[in-house]
């Protein structure tokens, strides 16, 4: 209680301020009641007794002041103003103290302008704004995508341009060589030869650097489990063979992220050799999708699998229409094996000795197919039924006695997977996409190892054929052989030798000749190729004509296939096509759009035998008219003669 | 005139008699110029019918040739018929127009017709 009385008696700063304010305002208010104003109000009294008025004024002022002060005091006491104001003072003091104690600065008031506050409360407005922003975002996103696409296209165009430049350089080199061979007696010729020689010297360096034997480029990435010398030397002979064929080989580990297949959306390698069967994924982000993209982009891949094959590579193979056996299974054959350990253990009979090469002339030469058997230790696969069935070709298949063995359960794989047995079990397959990119799927990465290259087949007592097999398979996969190309196409009307070749239009039933010149790339050069089943088609929705072309001419680098034929009696826009797809050869699809026109009205025969009766009757009527006219004119009536 | 006023036989014995009478009447009473016209008309009819039969049996191809040949026959028939009507002395309706004029018109029509036919034929 004492404290409260203390507080009530002691005026705090706010109370003092209040008292001062009251005093000041009271003085001002009372001060307005001056004598002059009073005199104006009571002029008569002011004239009669100004002294009296003055006294009255003083009394009124004093009374007013006293009354207001009393009233104020009452209010203060009634409402406990002194205590409350003191309390307020204390609170503020406390707050200030705590602020300084905790080191918190004066409160920061966020400066939210009224507009924002209103907007925050109006959800609808906000939502509308959000939608608008989203729309703007979508617009920009699509624009961005379009720009990205155009960038991609331009890159591709640049790539082809680069190819063309390299081609031109090669041509230049040939010209230069021709120039060198020329007679050098004349001074002018001398000068030209020197110039050409310089050009050749300039370009040849470039060509040697940029031109491998492969038609698809020379940048090769070989992925191994690791880049230890031991691992690399394990595949040393194969890698050296690649290098010897002019490839720029980059070797990297599956666990390394340094060698990227795609950088800035640009293909960095032309060929990919995956000898990491066990890798589930690649550190460089190479996954099945990227691999498929790589093939779509024209890159070639050689995949070496093994019994621990899995992950991205397995998925990639599946995308190509090839299903590898379950992880952990191995291919066994008790009749064709090379013992590696104790021969009684089935799992030890997985080193297959096989020469069951498929008839794929353009992939494997006779030398390989009739040479020694190859060693194979790994996993089998099968070709899935589906649209890709015609794009995958078995290269090496199992014997009737070959089957798949589950090493985990130590049992033969159950009949539900019976496809993975016998000759349906594929050991090596070759895939060629529609853009002629090639993928070789080998069930055994160890086929490429030095030990397999150097091995001897005990039963036959001869060297294993692995070296030559792998050499030719990689040659095929990397476009060093089995590449077919159209050099030229010519078609013309037979009856009119003066007409230009490849006219855009013929007339129905024209006799024409179609010629196509094909070259086959093998052993580093373009050669002629003997084919008996190249067919020409004249198509308007359906083929109206399909005719087998015969080889009529051979040049040093190509073969000319030709056929004479009569165009159909149907007019319209036709496509002259040669669509040639054969196992192991790159597909050829050449088309020309040609119009076949009907006869013009003046190209028909004017008179035809069928209408002869009509011509005859017309003529007879004309003659009859003339005859009748003559007879009628000279006619005399016999009756008149009688009358005379 | 007496011959033209010849009466039908009083006792018509049948159709053969009637035809015989008609024939005799035609040969004896029709003027020779009209007979000539009749011969010409008969020829156009024969030619027209033959063409039509050929068209039905074989083909109307080429149609333009058929049109020319058959049209020529039909038109010739029509012109000849008109000429016959106009030069027939018994036909008083055209008495004020001379036979020479009729013949001239007949010739002009034919010339035009055969130009058209020649154009259609090939």
Write the layout of secondary structure elements.
The complex is a heterodimer of chains A (644) and B (122).
Chain A: H1 2-9, H2 13-31, H3 35-41, H4 43-48, H5 50-78, H6 81-102, H7 114-121, H8 123-181, H9 187-210, E1 219-224, H10 229-234, H11 236-244, E2 248-253, E3 262-263, E4 266-267, E5 271-274, H12 288-296, E6 300-304, H13 312-319, E7 322-324, E8 329-332, E9 352-354, H14 366-369, E10 374-376, E11 381-383, E12 392-397, E13 403-406, E14 411-412, E15 426-432, E16 438-442, H15 450-454, E17 456-457, E18 462-463, H16 466-477, E19 483-493, E20 505-507, E21 511-522, E22 525-527, E23 535-540, E24 542-548, E25 550-554, E26 559-566, E27 572-580, E28 588-597, H17 612-633, H18 638-643
Parallel strand pairs in A: 1-2, 1-5, 5-6, 6-16, 20-28
Antiparallel strand pairs in A: 3-4, 7-11, 8-13, 9-10, 12-15, 13-14, 15-16, 17-18, 19-21, 21-22, 21-26, 23-24, 23-27, 25-26, 27-28
Helix pairs in contact in A: 1-6, 2-5, 8-9, 12-13
Chain B: H1 15-29, H2 32-57, H3 63-87, H4 99-121
Helix pairs in contact in B: 2-3, 3-4
């Amino acid at each position: 209680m004492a404290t409260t009385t203390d507080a009530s008696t002691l005026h705090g700063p706010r109370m003092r301020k209040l008292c001062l304010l009251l005093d000041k305002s009271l003085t001002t208010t009372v001060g307005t009641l001056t004598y002059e104003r009073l005199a104006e109000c009571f002029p008569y009294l002011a004239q009669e007794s100004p002294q009296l008025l003055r006294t009255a004024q003083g009394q009124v002022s004093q009374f007013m002041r006293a009354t207001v002060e009393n009233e104020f005091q009452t209010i203060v006491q009634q409402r406990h103003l002194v205590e409350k104001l003191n309390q307020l003072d204390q609170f503020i003091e406390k707050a200030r103290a705590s602020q300084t104690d905790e080191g918190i600065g004066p409160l920061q008031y966020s400066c939210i302008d009224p507009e924002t506050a209103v907007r925050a409360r109006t959800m609808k407005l906000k939502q509308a704004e959000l939608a608008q922003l989203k729309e703007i975002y979508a617009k920009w996103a699509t624009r961005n995508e379009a720009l990205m696409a155009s960038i991609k296209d331009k890159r591709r165009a640049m790539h082809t341009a680069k190819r063309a430049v390299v081609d031109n350089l090669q041509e230049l080199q040939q010209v230069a060589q021709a120039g060198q061979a020329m007679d050098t007696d004349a001074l002018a010729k001398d000068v030209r030869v020197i110039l050409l020689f310089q050009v050749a010297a300039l370009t040849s360096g470039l060509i040697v650097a940029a031109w491998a034997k492969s038609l698809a480029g020379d940048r090769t990435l070989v992925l191994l489990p690791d880049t230890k010398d031991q691992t690399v030397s394990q595949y040393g002979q194969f890698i050296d063979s690649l290098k010897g064929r002019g490839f720029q080989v980059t070797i990297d580990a599956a666990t390394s992220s340094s060698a990227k297949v795609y950088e800035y959306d640009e293909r960095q390698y032309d060929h990919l050799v995956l000898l990491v069967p066990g890798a589930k994924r690649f550190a460089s982000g190479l996954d099945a999708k990227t691999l498929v993209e790589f093939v779509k982009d024209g890159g070639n891949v050689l995949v070496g699998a093994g019994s621990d094959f899995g992950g991205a590579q397995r998925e990639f193979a599946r995308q190509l229409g090839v299903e590898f056996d379950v992880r952990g299974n191995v291919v066994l054959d008790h009749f064709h094996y090379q013992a590696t350990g104790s021969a009684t253990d089935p799992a030890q009979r997985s080193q297959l000795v096989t020469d069951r090469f498929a008839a794929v002339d353009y992939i494997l030469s006779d030398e390989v197919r009739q040479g020694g058997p190859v060693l194979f230790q790994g996993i089998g696969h099968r070709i899935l039924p589906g649209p890709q069935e015609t794009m995958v070709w078995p290269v090496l298949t199992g014997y009737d006695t070959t089957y798949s063995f589950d090493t985990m359960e130590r049992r033969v794989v159950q009949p539900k997977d019976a496809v993975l047995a016998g000759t349906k079990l594929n050991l090596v397959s070759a895939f060629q996409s529609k853009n002629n990119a090639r993928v070789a799927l080998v069930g055994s990465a160890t086929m490429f190892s030095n030990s397999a290259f150097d091995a001897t087949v005990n039963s036959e007592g001869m060297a294993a054929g692995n070296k030559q097999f792998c050499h030719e398979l990689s040659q095929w996969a990397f476009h060093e052989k089995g590449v077919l190309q159209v050099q030229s196409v010519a078609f013309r009307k037979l009856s009119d030798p003066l007409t230009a070749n490849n006219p855009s239009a013929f007339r129905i039933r024209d006799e024409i000749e179609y010629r196509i010149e094909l070259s086959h790339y093998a052993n580093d050069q373009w050669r002629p190729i003997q084919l008996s089943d190249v067919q020409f088609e004249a198509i308007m929705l359906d083929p109206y004509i399909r005719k087998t072309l015969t080889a009529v001419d051979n040049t040093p680098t190509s073969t000319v296939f030709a056929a004479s034929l009569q165009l159909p009696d149907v007019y319209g826009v036709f496509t002259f096509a040669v669509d040639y797809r054969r196992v192991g050869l790159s597909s050829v699809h050449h088309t020309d759009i040609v119009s076949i026109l009907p006869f013009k009205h003046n190209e028909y025969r004017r008179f035809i035998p069928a209408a002869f009766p009509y011509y005859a009757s017309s003529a007879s009527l004309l003659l009859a008219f003339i005859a009748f006219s003559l007879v009628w004119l000279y006619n005399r009536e016999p009756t008149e003669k009688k009358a005379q | 005139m007496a011959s033209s006023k010849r009466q039908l036989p009083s006792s018509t014995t049948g159709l053969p008699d009637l035809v015989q009478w008609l024939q005799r009447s035609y040969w004896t009473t029709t003027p020779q110029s009209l007979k000539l016209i009749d011969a010409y008309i008969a020829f156009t009819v024969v030619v027209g019918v033959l063409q039509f039969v050929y068209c039905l049996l074989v083909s109307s191809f080429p149609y333009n040739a058929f049109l020319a040949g058959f049209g020529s026959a039909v038109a010739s028939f029509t012109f000849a018929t008109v000429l016959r009507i106009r030069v027939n002395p018994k036909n008083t309706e055209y008495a004020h127009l001379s036979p020479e004029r009729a013949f001239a018109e007949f010739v002009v029509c034919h010339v035009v017709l055969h130009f058209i036919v020649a154009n259609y034929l090939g």
